[in-house]
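Whiteboard transcription, Tuesday session. T.W. wrote the structure tokens on the left side:
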């Protein structure tokens, strides 16, 4: 991709690179890019800035933290080894998926030769590419059993809604309906078995240590809550996780590091559903391709997939549910009620 010869504004540069303007500002805060300025003070991205940004995005796709990218761009190429190892692991998983799909199709052809026609479920499984996952189920209480369906599920999904909207019950039912999925509740914060699991499984402990190192370089603070989250992510099973209030116990910097980890390191390994009301986890300016938001309305009408663009169906409703970690901490456990209802 040859960079344009003229200077671009922030919005033009973001469109050219396929990222958000906010992502460019994050790279600028880290000192990775230093765009020029117009006479009026507006950021201007020249050909060299765009070429550097393209390199940053390539390194990010390799799974490098921002701190690792800084070192690589400063001439230390050792961090590339970990990134290439992640890419190799990713390609191995893709090869395994392709091999499994090949064997399913070959099995169906063998069945046809024996006179046995495949049913719709077998065909759907054989034609699936691992990312076009669909799910449908009857909604639990507080809904009235309405049918809910989610099609073409992307790797990273968010669940949000006002207090009392039934998000947790929805998330639990979703986890039960999805293939090879688990629900990760808030009891993870009190799990007494984590230490023993790490002591008994050296491979898991190594993966957890590597993940925590990456998160720390991204700005996270090591806590028991972060450890519990990482252990769940790095365990061998399942292939899908539905998480209750992913931000619980995590400070603002850690939340931002965690969502970066999901986007950069986990999206090719797990399909994730993150229940959240934090604008650091679900920053609508950073939501990109391969991500979706399911909104649970306050009036218990059926949840729906929001359109992630200003003015889109559900976009403003989602935005009103989100708050910064500081506000979320200040209002934790508070339920707004009318004064006359309290009398």
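and on the right, the sequence the group agreed on:
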């Amino acid at each position: 991709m040859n960079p344009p010869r003229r200077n671009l504004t922030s919005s033009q540069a973001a469109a050219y690179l396929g990222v958000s303007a906010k992502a460019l500002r994050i790279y600028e805060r880290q000192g990775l890019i230093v765009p020029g300025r117009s006479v009026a003070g507006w950021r201007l991205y020249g050909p060299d800035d765009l070429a550097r940004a393209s390199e940053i995005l390539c390194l990010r796709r390799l799974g490098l933290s921002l701190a690792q990218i800084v070192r690589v761009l400063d001439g230390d190429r050792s961090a590339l080894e970990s990134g290439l190892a992640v890419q190799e692991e990713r390609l191995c998983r893709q090869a395994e998926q392709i091999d499994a799909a090949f064997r399913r199709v070959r099995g169906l052809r063998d069945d046809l030769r024996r006179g046995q026609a495949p049913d719709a479920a077998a065909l759907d499984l054989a034609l699936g590419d691992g990312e076009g996952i669909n799910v449908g189920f009857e909604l639990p209480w507080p809904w009235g059993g309405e049918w809910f369906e989610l099609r073409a599920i992307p790797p990273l999904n968010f669940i949000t809604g006002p207090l009392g909207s039934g998000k947790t019950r929805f998330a639990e039912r979703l986890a039960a309906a999805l293939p090879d999925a688990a629900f990760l509740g808030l009891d993870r914060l009190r799990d007494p078995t984590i230490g023993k699991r790490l002591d008994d499984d050296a491979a898991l402990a190594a993966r957890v240590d590597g993940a925590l190192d990456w998160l720390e370089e991204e700005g996270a603070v090591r806590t028991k809550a972060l450890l519990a989250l990482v252990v769940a992510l790095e365990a061998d099973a399942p292939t899908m996780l539905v998480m209750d209030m992913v931000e619980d116990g995590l400070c603002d910097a850690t939340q931002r590091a965690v969502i970066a980890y999901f986007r950069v390191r986990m999206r090719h390994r797990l399909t994730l559903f993150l229940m959240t009301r934090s604008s650091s986890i679900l920053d609508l300016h950073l939501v990109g391709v391969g991500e979706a938001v399911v909104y649970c309305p306050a009036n218990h009408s059926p949840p729906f997939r929001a359109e992630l663009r200003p003015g889109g169906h559900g976009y403003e409703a989602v935005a009103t549910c989100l708050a910064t970690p500081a506000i979320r901490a200040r209002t934790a456990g508070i339920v707004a009620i009318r004064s006359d209802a309290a009398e």
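Someone added at the bottom: Residues 79-113 form the longest helix (35 residues).
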